[in-house]
Amino acid sequence: GENVEQHPSxxxxxxxxxxxxxxxxxxSASNYFPWYKQELGKGPQLIIDIRSNVGEKKDQRIAVTxxxxxxxxxxHITETQPEDSAVYFCAALLRSNDYKLSFGAGTTVTVxx
Amino acid sequence: DVKVxxxxxxxxxxxxxxxxxxxxxxxxxxxMFWYRQDPGLGLRLIYFSYDVKxxxxxxxxxxxxxxxxxxxxxxxxxESASTNQTSMYLCASSPTGTHTDTQYFGPGTRLTVL
Lengths: 113, 114
Fold this sequence. Notes:
- The complex is a heterodimer.
- Helices cover 0% and strands 58% of the residues of chain A.
- By secondary structure, chain A is mostly beta strands.
- The radius of gyration of chain A is 13 Å and the shape is globular.
- Chain B contains no helices and eleven strands.
């Protein structure tokens, strides 16, 4: 979506290293930011989300950070494993989009064994 | 487990044909969505529905219509398919009427219009 920019578009990491994906949004009233993971041949699946009243959220090897002032949020995957290879989408609930989710363009993550 | 199923994984149609894409969810969810997924553009919302016989336009509704006659079923209709509608189509559902609910996606239908 044009109101959510996601970088990089592709990311290759060595197994065991960390991966970071960053998204920026334009609407300061946005308050909900989910991340979806899409494995080959499957539909996207929610892996973590964050709301605007917190700055960081963790779930095992994945974490999301939110900087409301700078209007960006990031997904961090630590100790990457081959099963982390997938396409990752960020999204934001934008007031400018009538409070519907707008998705980023996606990041293809490849974990090299 | 929530299950969202789509009628076809792959579909090939000719320009001008009427195309129906079907989606069924088994968790009594209120919301259902249709997205298209294109490289470099992410997921774009075509239509969504909060309830039976109710529909709302998403970001790119042109050339599409939808039907929700039963709560569990949401159909996407291409009245006259065109080559620029070649894409991956994803259906999703979520429990309630808010957009902060988790969306559960089907596996997608890859449509090719020749």
